Amino acid sequence: MTNSQKLSRFYLTLVPFLAAVIALALGHSNPQLYLPIWLAHALLMAVAVWRLGKNCFTNPDPGQKQLGTIALLVAIPWIGFTVFAGMGPPPTSIPEWVQTATEQQIRYALLIAGGISITAGLALLASQLREHGEKTYSLLGLLAISIALPLFILNMAYWGSYLVESFTNFPPGSIVKRPDWYLAMRALFTWISGVEVALFYLASAAFGRALQLVGWLKPGACRLYVTFSLVGALLSVLPSFSIGPLEIVTYLVSIPAFPFIIPYLMALNLLDLANGYLSMNQNKSDQ
Fold first, then answer.
1. What is the pLDDT of residue 169?
2. For position 134, what pLDDT does the model report?
3. How far apart are CA 274 and CA 175, in angstroms?
4. Per-residue pLDDT averaged across 189-200, rounded?
């Protein structure tokens, strides 16, 4: 691996974590400030992905190209997700929702597009894993994401379209006392959100285990992926009356882009694999 590839790998690994820290620490910023910064980052991230994966993207070997395609489908959506660093977390009041309506619609449209792309990449990964003899966990992962994606699209449409339109058209008095129908819909989508988030985490756990069994990724990395995914799945379905630090952690794991962090890290590992830094034919070890 060349120095430029090592630097690209390091930068790409930090991307989701830096974006999350900036978004949570700084909150909403002026679009005139964060959009130029994000565009520069998007270009830099695209260059980093190309440098890291150029060997497999241009390699005539179909196996390497397939892994490169999977990695691209899973990693590229994060170029869009990083704009959330400037948008900050979703608003906490109706006036803020109304003031930032366009940004919220863009946020959830990017999440829907990204979720579809990542699901497609994981579906291709499941196919590749089955061809290499791993059928159980790849099937479980595919089943989980197949159920999660429609729920995810529905949930993101609720946040990005339904809530924006509802808040914009609320009667003035309802800002203090919200309509009964709104409370009922919010309770419904709280359940939907918990289920789809848990399913995405469970899918990541299944793929992490499958990648370990075929020997494509190092056992230690796979164990971390599985452990964090299972913890995320558990936290995402905890009751809303959780208190203290547990409530904060539960909120964090349920942020829409967070369940896609582990698949993103797996995609970077697959780029390493496709480039030949790890052997696809290495023996299963340390299971």
1. 74
2. 93
3. 54
4. 93
DSSP helix/strand/coil, 275 = coil
Q: Which one, of 41, 40, 36, 4, lies nearest residue 19 by Cα?
A: 41
Nearest one of 195, 180, 204, 61 to 122, comparing CA atoms: 204
Place of tokens 């936290």: 235
* CA 276 and chain centroid, separation: 26
Q: What is the largest CA-CA distance in the chain?
A: 66
Return the residue matching tokens 């150029």.
54
Q: Residue 173: how many CB atoms within 10 A of its CB?
A: 8
284 vs 260, higher pLDDT: 260
Percent of the chain with pLDDT over 90: 59
DSSP 105-120: HHHHHHHHHHHHHHHH
Half-sphere exposure of 36 (CA within 13 A, CB side): 3
**223 exposure class (CB count in 10 Å sphere: 0-12, 13-18, 19+):** middle
Q: Which residues, including other chains, have CB under 8 Å from residue 6's CB and lie 6 or more apart?
A: none
Read off φ and ψ for residue 276, nearest 5 degrees.
95, 5
The CA angle 129-56-117, to the nearest 5 degrees, is 60
Give the separation between CA 71 and CA 179, rounded to whole angstroms. Answer: 45
The amino acid sitting at 225 is Y
The pLDDT value given to residue 229 = 96
**Overall pTM > 0.85:** yes
Joined tokens for residue 219: 């056992």
Between 4 and 89, the more confident residue is 89
d(CA 214, CA 136): 12
pLDDT score recorded for residue 278: 46
